[in-house]
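User: My advisor asked me to double-check a structure prediction for DUF1985 domain-containing protein before group meeting. I don't want to rely on an old file, so could you generate it fresh from this sequence?
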Amino acid sequence: MEYIYNIGDRCDAKVTTRSNVLNVEKVYEALDDIHKEKFLKSCFGKLYDIRNMKISTQLIHNLLLRRVISVNEDELWFCLSLEKVVHFSLYEFMLVTGLSHANEEEYES
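Assistant: Sure, here is a fresh prediction for DUF1985 domain-containing protein from the sequence you gave:
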């Protein structure tokens, strides 16, 4: 199993985020009813759905440091321990986020 990033490339820096998804709600509330509907149907509508989501950027950063080379180009593989490798596929990403892939019919079960 080979990591994407070398151990020497890793640093002890602390990852933080300066974005605030709550601002999406402010934009949405400033719109009239017609534009609110258009907003929700656009690619930004999903951001409105997750406006109260809490994330840990440090956790995501450390997970990405554990990324290993995968066999399938539609999957991300992470080594969580010496014996445990987890897979996260494009299909699972679409299920979790509600976003679509250009060829979504390929992934429908």
